[in-house]
Amino acid sequence: MATQRSNPEAGDPLQAGPPAPASVHASVHASLEPRALELLRAIANSPEPLGARELGRRIEAGNRPLSESTVNRLLRRLDEQGLTRSMDGRGRVVSEAGRALAQRAAAEVTWHQQIGSLEIRTVQDVRDLLVARRGVEREIVREAATSVSGEDVERLQSVMEEYERSVHTEERRRDVSTNFHKALASTVENTMLRAVAMVIFDPRFDMLEHVLDMVTAGRGTTMHSVHEHEEIMRAIRAGDPDAAEAAMVRHINRLIADASAVVAPSTRLAIELLLRNHSPVIGGGT
Predict the structure, then answer these.
(1) Within 13 Å of residue 264, how many CA atoms lie on the same side as its CB?
(2) What whole-number distance in Å separates Cα of residue 130 and Cα of residue 255?
(3) Cα dist from 129 to 32, 155, 242, whole Å
(4) What letter would DSSP give residue 92?
(5) What's the rounded Cα separation, in Å, for the pair 249 and 16?
(6) Residues 215, 219, 225, 231: is their CA dihedral positive or negative?
(7) What DSSP state is assigned to residue 121?
(8) Number of Cα atoms under 13 Å in the Cβ half of residue 285
(9) Which string of DSSP letters, residue by residue, matches 273-285?
(10) Reduced to 3 states, what is the DSSP secondary structure of residue 191?
């Protein structure tokens, strides 16, 4: 089976993300240079054809209009790619393909803005992220149990053992705490699941692990993850998706319960200080 992999030399099993998708689904921002994309969007948003001079005024370069020669060079590139066409000297309009690409570019900007606004600001955010992880990871582990390769099993076992070796070392434990979950996501062929996994395991959420570590250490449940990971692996090795899903749900439900529990005042204060130091907004509580 040709399971898609991330580079094992890269360190983080999911950091590099899924393999490059087909060109029709590739990032708009990777398919055109930034100024050409700006021109395409300006033309697509205009109710009438736009000429090079007007486009130069609309697309600034260092607070100055973009030169006509530069605009014309970029327009020729857009014409060559079938994204724009000339209207007999009256200016450019977008083709059907150009309009579709401009719409994708706008959607991509909105997507990045929405993702960029996500932060762990409160303990409630920690719980919310865990709930999201439960929904995604139960599907990831089901697919892993039915399609994982022998090579994947060895890699997952190695990552799991790394966590077990680190569990008594606070800082190291936090650094590797999600590696098992990221490695699981990197084994699945479902590109949508892999893409969503990239969001929920984004580095901006690393603070989640610090908060959870404080809570579980205070509640004496830190070692539970070791046994829960082992249970998940047993189900994967057995090729049992139902058992794998049930084990993953129990694992994350336990983390949600930990994050929802009343903790000692000293732990609560430490969590609030940690979150405050990493975000301008603080609220919620355990």
Answers:
(1) 10
(2) 8
(3) 34, 26, 23
(4) E
(5) 26
(6) negative
(7) -
(8) 7
(9) HHHHHH-S--B--
(10) helix
Cα separation, 183 vs 137, in Å, equals: 11
Amino acid at 117: S
Q: Kind of pairing, strands 92-94 and 84-86?
A: antiparallel
pLDDT of 4 strictly over 50? no
Which tokens hold the place of 238?
């057995």
pLDDT digits (tens, 9 = 90+) for 11-60: 444 543 333 333 333 455 556 788 888 899 999 999 999 998 889 888 87
Separation in Å, CA 188 to CA 77, 89, 148, 160, 247: 38, 52, 8, 17, 18
Residue type present at position 4: Q
List b or e across 192-207, with b for residues whose CB sees 16 or more CB atoms inside 10 angstroms: ebbebbbebbeeebeb
For 217-262, what is each residue's pLDDT tens digit?
A: 778 888 899 999 999 999 999 999 999 999 999 999 999 998 887 6
The tokens for 12 are 């983080």
Q: Which residues of 70-97 are buried (b: 16+ CB within 10 A; e: fewer)?
A: bbeebbebbeebebbeeeeeebbbbbee
Q: Which two tokens stand for residue 84?
A: 């724009």
pTM above 0.70, yes or no: no
The percent of the chain in helix, strand and coil, each rounded to the nearest 5, is 70, 5, 25
The amino acid that residue 136 corresponds to is V
